[in-house]
């Protein structure tokens, strides 16, 4: 009986946590009509946003479509918000959480990350009781391709040096969450933990993917005596295998024990993120991933800000995670620009500068959108 309670509880947390961290990160269909803040001398003829037209093209049906601005004519950026005045009139914890907000409801254990609602807005409460919005990067780890390994050896030479420089990159750009990531998760690697999770004066949260159905499929030969052809059959049929529930109960208990007592650990989630727009100028094929291609790294930053501004406006998003840390290859060996650093580990500063501006402005932007929502 206890096993089934654990199983149901875990599934509930996984699904609800996912929706809050990823699925709820979408614009509300009932957007509030913009109103000009009281007391502002904003000219009546000035709109709330001066929208940008960011040209892009999509990879569809095996080919790139023509360049267009059809779906990007209302791209928002912070610098083009005409009614917004930046403010830093608040204190933050080392996790990036805002100090002083009074939650009306809290779910979770004190001293660890919890889910909270403050003034009608969803937050995570960090271990020091700050109201935090996650803005992170996925798969912060050295790449595994031949090109990645060669560049890693030339640029860093050791995991210690890589993690030290990468920790500084995270801190400098006010990134407060990462995932290290592996198919069969283990504890966060001790050799890089300090540099990545406590860079400078910051504390960084992390979570991990716990592949339930997929792990059962990988272990099919051990579980049932035969391999599962994932290319031929729908893997969802595995849910009906008599041994599935028992296997998942055991897997959840085993993996949960790895992170017990870790204040940096938020929880588990399923990996379903898509990358942001790729960059035309890298020389990569850019045929794998989300399928949007733009001209410059600056354009990628504009898309990032547009996406995150709309998430902050919704009031029910507790964070977002950029996919991913470095550029990589698809299964056919074609390179794609997804990362904040290149395959050679060179940071994309034009992209990162706009990510940094947004990350630094999260609480100020929340104040702006919350005040506007009640007018």
Can you walk through the features of this model?
This protein has a domain at 56-211 and 290-373. 33% of the residues lie in helices and 14% in strands. The protein is built from nine helices and 15 strands. The chain has helices at residues 2-23, 146-155, 159-172, 190-197, 212-218, 220-224, 244-258, 297-314, 349-373, and strands at residues 56-60, 63-64, 105-107, 114-118, 121-125, 131-132, 134-137, 177-178, 205-209, 265-269, 278-279, 292-294, 319-322, 328-329, 335-336. A five-stranded parallel β-sheet has the order 10-9-8-7-13, covered by helices on one side. β5 (121-125) and β6 (131-132) form a beta hairpin. α1 (2-23) crosses α7 (244-258). The longest helix is centred in the last third of the chain and has 25 residues, at 349-373. The chain starts with a helix and ends with a helix.
Summary keywords:
375 residues, 33% helix, globular, alpha/beta, signal, five-stranded parallel sheet, four-stranded mixed sheet
User: What would you call the shape?
Assistant: globular
Strand order of the largest sheet: 10-9-8-7-13
Helicity, as a percent range: 25-40%
Q: Count of DSSP E strands?
A: 15
Q: How is the quaternary structure best described?
A: single chain
Beta strand %: 5-15%
Q: What string, H for helix and E for strand, traces the elements in order?
A: HEEEEEEEHHEHEHHHEEEHEEEH
Number of helices: 9
Q: For the CA atoms, what is the radius of gyration?
A: 22 Å
Class by alpha and beta content:
alpha/beta
Our measurement of the CA-to-CA distance between the termini, rounded to an integer number of angstroms, reads 51 Å
Mean pLDDT: 84
Strand count, sense and closure of the main sheet?
5 strands, parallel
* Low-confidence runs: 1-39, 271-275
